[in-house]
Specification:
The protein is α+β, with helices and mostly antiparallel strands. It is built from 1 helix and 8 strands; from the N terminus they run H-E-E-E-E-E-E-E-E. It has a 4-stranded antiparallel sheet, covered by helices on one side.
């Protein structure tokens, strides 16, 4: 009778899993990698939040300008803390308490061009809810980084010109990177309503 016989080598060690020392080393390596990854992740999130706010603002300003040209009527884009309301209200003041334009905005056909939503004659064509991940999104002066109350609404006439506008806005991320100007963005609007952006807290 033949068969297969197994023998165990006296030099072979049984599989006993990780030793405590090996486990400590692995945990230490993970901790080091995590400490390196967290700041990088925070910077990615900060850039994404600022870019979203900037891109949405510029896109809606361009939309408002285009809609004014298309319809031959005044169109207003104003800062509002009630953009989804049936009768949205444009915000006033410098917006310091609420972070400025980060509270949201609304774009509407402004029949009489007065920059105020009139339920009887005006019509909302686009709305932006409050933005997250920002410490502020202010309209500021030409040579200052302090919030001003002069650019809470952009009104484009039927020719697409921004009436009385030549403005500048600064956007900063929230959290530990709020004061880092490398993550700030500047939006500039010229007297005819064209917008562009610049990295950092830059003059227009």
């Amino acid at each position: 009778m033949s068969g297969t016989f197994f023998s165990s080598s006296p030099n072979r060690r049984p599989n006993a899993g990780f030793t405590l020392l090996e486990l400590i080393v692995v945990v230490a390596i993970i901790a080091v990698l995590a400490s390196l990854a967290v700041p990088e992740f925070a910077s990615i999130v900060a850039k994404a939040n600022v870019s979203k706010a900037m891109n949405n603002f510029i896109a809606d300003a361009n939309f408002a300008r285009g809609e004014a040209l298309r319809q031959g009527k005044s169109v207003t884009m104003c800062r509002s803390n009630s953009p989804a309301a049936a009768v949205p209200v444009c915000s006033g003041g410098d917006g310091v308490a609420v972070g400025g334009w980060q509270e949201g905005w609304v774009v509407f056909i402004d029949d009489n061009g007065n920059g105020t939503f009139n339920a009887a004659t005006d019509r909302v064509v686009r709305a932006q809810e409050a933005l997250n991940g920002l410490s502020n999104f202010f309209a500021v002066g030409a040579n200052t980084i302090s919030a001003v109350a002069t650019a809470n609404a952009l009104t484009f006439d039927g020719t697409g010109r921004a009436i009385g506008q030549q403005a500048r806005w600064l956007i900063h991320p929230s959290g530990s990177l709020a004061g880092d100007t490398n993550f700030a963005r500047t939006i500039c609007m010229n007297s005819v309503g064209r917008t562009r952006w610049i990295k950092g807290e830059s003059p227009c």
